[in-house]
Specification:
Number of helices: 8
Helix content: 10-25%
Structural class: alpha+beta
Radius of gyration: 21 Å
CATH superfamily of the largest domain: Pseudouridine synthase
């Protein structure tokens, strides 16, 4: 079926382009001034195994950064069996009750910017946006613009405040070079429930990638733990000491060594898809950080797209399925391959 999809890509791309550009489809545009939730968030977890508290926190609140969790420990926002703990090396025992307090958002520092975002789905509790490639999901420093968050602040009246002033509404992230579906929470209760979905792995995500290599298998499950590269701190590697990471991949069409691949990650580690595909001989085109083929005449970014996401709505309990169109740059490469062009 996907073979038919890639072969007929010229036709449906023309239709998609005509609709989105002629009619300029957009849900709404609201002036800046987002109201963020400003109450403390409290979580309670029970330790099911003996482990360090920093690893437990990282697994329990997988959408939070290590620095964010370390700040919670340092600021005495974590308690175990009613006693405050501040050292990340503290060892939990089975049955320990871990209570976490996330302080309220006090001020909004990220500037709002009109990015003409494509809203794929929206209701009073959450929305799904088509993240363009080339921009960060959230700013790295307070007061910085240019990220997806700035576009959301311009376009949305309400966003959850659980993740602080730099990440309002952000439940999960996509790399700068990745395009596609991204879920955003408008209120704290919905945000917490979506976090549980991601933590419990009940959200189903599907990605498309264009790869180049000589894989041994056409389909498989990659169950390889991922850890931070000790030599290159912004990179990830497969390492037995890392966190559990699972991805299912399937090659759905090939052009000699070029491959159109569908990936369904079960977990959501940093750079997971990029690292996993490299490990099975399918590095993503343009991903030179992970041995992907450099093809500047054909492409300008890593060829990875978040195609769809499916989950149970936190409030209505109805099944929600959201998908996005592949970006024009990926379509262009597929069209070249369908025509039998060679890269020179």
């Amino acid at each position: 079926m996907i073979n038919d999809f890639t072969n007929s890509i010229d036709t449906w791309y023309f239709i998609w382009y005509w609709i989105t550009n002629v009619f300029n489809c957009k849900i709404k545009k609201i002036s800046p001034g987002v109201k963020l939730s400003n109450t403390s968030q409290n979580f309670s977890f029970t330790a099911e195994s003996s482990q360090r508290i920093d690893k437990f926190l990282s697994d329990s609140l997988s959408d939070k950064s290590r620095s964010f969790l370390q700040n919670l420990l340092s600021n005495e926002k974590i308690s175990v069996n009613g006693k405050v703990k501040s050292k990340k090396s503290f060892k939990l025992k089975v049955g320990d009750i871990v209570e976490i307090e996330i302080p309220p958002v006090i001020a909004l520092e990220t500037p709002a910017e009109d990015m003409n975002l494509n809203i794929l789905y929206e209701d009073e509790h959450l929305l799904a946006v088509l993240k363009p490639w080339g921009i960060l999901t959230h700013p790295l420093h307070a007061g910085k613009g240019g990220s997806l968050v700035s576009g959301l602040l311009h376009q949305c009246e309400f966003l959850s405040g659980i993740n602080g002033v730099m990440r309002p509404g952000i439940v999960h992230r996509l790399d700068r070079c990745t395009s596609g579906v991204l879920i955003v929470a408008k209120e704290d209760q919905t945000h917490r429930k979506l976090q549980e979905y991601f933590s419990n792995r009940t959200i189903q995500k599907t990605y498309y990638a264009l790869c180049y290599g000589n894989p041994k298998q056409q389909e498989g499950i990659i169950n390889s733990p991922i850890a931070r590269d000790p030599k290159r701190r912004t990179f990830q590697i497969i390492d037995e000491s890392g966190r559990e990471s699972i991805s299912h991949y399937k090659i759905v069409k090939s052009w000699n060594k070029f491959h159109f691949v569908q990936i369904k990650p079960k977990t959501g580690r940093t750079h997971q898809i990029r690292v996993h595909l490299q490990s099975v001989g399918l590095p993503i085109l343009g991903d030179t950080d992970y041995q992907g083929r450099f093809m500047p005449k054909w492409l300008k970014r890593v060829q990875l797209h978040s195609r769809s996401i499916e989950f149970l709505h936190p409030v209505t309990q109805k099944r929600v399925f959201i998908k996005s169109s592949i970006d024009a740059d990926m379509i262009s490469v597929i069209r070249r391959l369908n025509r039998g062009e060679r890269y020179v």
